[in-house]
């Protein structure tokens, strides 16, 4: 009866406009595009790009209570074949108590084309699409034809495909189960406890199994997300669906009849707030730890010196601290906002994304050189030396936020990964929490008189300490220069050294003017500083092979992991980058140790390296799938285990040796 009424409603909506089929302008523009030229015997992704007219919408593969799924009739060359259609995650639309699964804006449906082994020249790709396009009041069945002459050969990839693939639900490798209890269909979906969940919704692919418009209930155990759905009819075989986690991430699963655990905590309502508070607390703790990094610690120490030089004056100390805190929060918030905008535009990016561009690395190198020269007394930089000046404190806080981005210590990885799955407002709050943690030590010094009184009295030791602090900052400059070489090659290093030489000359002249009582800037100094930026125009990405790291491991790919696991071999994967200090410390102290390598070799372990020094959409998407927005990340795949074990961000040799020794050969 329900299906008959649903069909009747759809028919009544479609009949008044059915005469428009084949006449008048279409309400849905359609085209087919290929990601890249075809390779004989290979595969290439195609996209059916659907653009509904303003106020109209198209339908998902299961349209819900009303609507109609799209059908595609392909006309392809001999031995070519198109795979199943892969839809993005739909939106919910309830009209007159009926739930529809729709797309209200432009969307792309992907498919994979198998290319004939003897393909030459170009492949004529043709297809006829039948679909329903609707407003909230009227529906129109339309037919569209698409055509593409796909060249065979090599060429650049269409960058839109990364954005379209990011909107697809990710396939869930582990099996799900379902059971029927009274009028409810219970589905147990494997989901590690560290994967964030907001306000979930399950879109059923299997038709006629659930009542779409009725409320869904969710609960969570340690390793399962349990959906309780209003039952319409028991599935005859597998139950397939897409679970939208409510965090910008969705999973496609297939469930077989099987046990569904009881208990667990209810999801919904306050769950999003708990998730946000967890991520915010992790960001604050992560920002606090960043103060120990060699590029940030000198800045914090200089602010402490400024407090000591002020003689403990409470008003000036608090004004400076508030300015510093505001600068750190605005700095990390701005970086987070830029990251969210880049991801919203369809690009795969994560924390420290700016360091994957050699021009930003060159700027960081020049900044470290300037701070080193300031610490050595070549010139005075008011940003680092002022006390009781909120504007100076703000600039210093923003500077600290920028130079801290190469690192992601404990607590930060999970917090930033969660932030990238939250709505924009919640994500920005988490990024602000990182800035708050970064500023917290200086904030405590300024507002807790007992701590401020423990600072030593001003004296000659301050000048000596300032010179000592120049050492870690100079090392940071050398690290940035090394990273510049890794990303841009020898030519980038030469351009960087040229910029640094011009910068040193400008700062030397500025320092001489300051020592003689004149303003630092003069026409000559300003002209030299302008010339510092000229090498930026020539910086490009070199041909450095950062993806392969000699004897330290093979280049990572999900296919390589699957192949090793199919051989029942243990797999150790580490995600790293040349700009990640925590990664380098773990590699030197643990991964590259001879005893660790010997243990892994004896266990027959496959060691895979995912190098994120340069932007890599595949790595970014995998990190997103693990709920991570930053590195390092270490995964141990034990033989026969369903899911990998995520190791701590601070590794020790014993951790890897113990796991390798437990493998039975």
From TrEMBL:
Record's keyword annotation contains Cytoplasm: no
Signal sequence, start to end: 1-19
InterPro entries for the chain: DsbD_gamma, DsbDN, Thioredoxin-like_sf, Thioredoxin_CS
Assigned keywords, A-Z: Membrane, Redox-active center, Signal, Transmembrane, Transmembrane helix
Spans through the membrane: 275-300, 321-342, 362-381, 393-414, 420-447, 468-485, 491-509, 521-539
PROSITE patterns (alphabetical): THIOREDOXIN_1
Name of the featured protein: Thioredoxin family protein
């Amino acid at each position: 009866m329900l299906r008959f009424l649903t069909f009747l409603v759809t028919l009544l909506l479609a009949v008044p406009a059915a005469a428009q089929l084949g006449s008048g302008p279409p309400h849905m523009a359609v085209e087919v595009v290929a990601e890249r030229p075809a390779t004989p015997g290979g595969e290439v992704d195609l996209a059916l790009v659907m653009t509904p007219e303003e106020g109209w919408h198209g339908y998902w593969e299961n349209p819900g209570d009303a609507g109609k799924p799209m059908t595609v009739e392909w006309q392809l060359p001999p031995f070519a074949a198109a795979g199943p259609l892969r839809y993005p995650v739909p939106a919910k639309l309830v009209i007159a108590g009926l739930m529809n699964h729709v797309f209200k804006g432009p969307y792309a449906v992907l498919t994979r084309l198998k290319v004939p082994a003897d393909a030459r020249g170009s492949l004529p790709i043709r297809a006829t699409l039948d679909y329903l396009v609707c407003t909230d009041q009227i529906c129109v069945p339309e037919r569209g034809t698409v055509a593409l002459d796909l060249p065979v050969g090599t060429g650049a990839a269409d960058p839109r495909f990364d954005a379209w693939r990011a909107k697809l639900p990710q396939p869930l490798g582990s099996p799900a189960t379902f059971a029927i209890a009274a009028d409810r269909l219970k589905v147990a979906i494997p989901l590690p406890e560290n994967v964030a969940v907001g306000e979930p919704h399950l879109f059923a692919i299997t038709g006629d199994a659930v009542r779409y418009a009725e409320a869904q209930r969710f609960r969570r155990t340690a390793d399962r997300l349990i959906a309780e759905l209003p039952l319409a009819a028991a599935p005859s075989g597998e139950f397939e669906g897409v679970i939208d986690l409510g965090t910008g991430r969705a999973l496609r699963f297939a469930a077989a009849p099987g046990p569904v655990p009881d208990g667990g905590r209810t999801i919904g309502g306050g769950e999003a707030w708990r998730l946000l508070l967890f991520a915010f607390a992790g960001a604050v703790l992560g920002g606090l730890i960043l103060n120990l990094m060699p590029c940030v610690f000198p800045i914090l120490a200089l602010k402490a010196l400024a407090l000591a030089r002020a003689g403990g004056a409470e008003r000036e100390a608090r004004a400076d601290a508030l300015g510093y805190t505001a600068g750190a929060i605005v700095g990390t918030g701005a970086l987070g906002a830029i990251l969210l905008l880049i991801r919203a535009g369809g690009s795969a990016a994560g924390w420290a994304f700016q360091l994957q561009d050699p021009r930003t690395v060159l700027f960081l190198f020049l900044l470290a050189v300037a701070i080193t020269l300031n610490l050595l007394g070549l010139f005075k930089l008011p940003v680092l030396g002022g006390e009781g000046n909120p504007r100076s404190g703000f600039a210093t806080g923003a500077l600290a936020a920028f130079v801290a981005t190469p690192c992601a210590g404990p607590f930060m990885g999970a917090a930033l990964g969660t932030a990238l799955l939250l709505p924009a407002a919640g994500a920005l709050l988490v990024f602000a929490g990182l800035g708050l943690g970064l500023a917290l030590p200086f904030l405590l010094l300024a507002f807790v008189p007992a701590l401020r009184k423990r600072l030593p009295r001003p004296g000659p030791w301050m000048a000596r300490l300032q010179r000592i602090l120049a050492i870690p900052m100079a090392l940071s400059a050398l690290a940035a220069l090394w990273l510049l070489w890794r990303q841009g090659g020898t030519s980038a290093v030469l351009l960087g050294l040229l910029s640094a030489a011009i910068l040193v000359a400008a700062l030397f002249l500025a320092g001489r003017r300051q020592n003689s009582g004149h303003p630092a800037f003069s026409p000559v100094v300003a002209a030299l500083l302008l010339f510092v930026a000229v090498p930026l125009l020539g910086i490009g990405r070199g041909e450095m092979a950062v993806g392969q790291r000699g004897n330290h491991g093979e280049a990572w790919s999900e296919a390589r992991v699957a192949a090793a696991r199919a051989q029942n071999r243990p797999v150790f994967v580490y995600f790293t980058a040349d700009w990640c200090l925590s990664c380098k410390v773990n590699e030197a102290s643990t991964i590259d140790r001879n005893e660790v390598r010997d243990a892994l070799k004896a266990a027959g372990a496959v060691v895979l390296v995912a190098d994120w020094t340069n932007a890599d959409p595949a790595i970014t998407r995998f990190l997103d799938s693990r709920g991570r927005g930053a590195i390092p990340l270490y995964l141990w795949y034990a033989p026969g285990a369903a899911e990998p074990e995520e190791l701590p961000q601070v590794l020790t040799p014993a951790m890897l040796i113990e796991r390798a020794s437990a493998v039975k050969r």
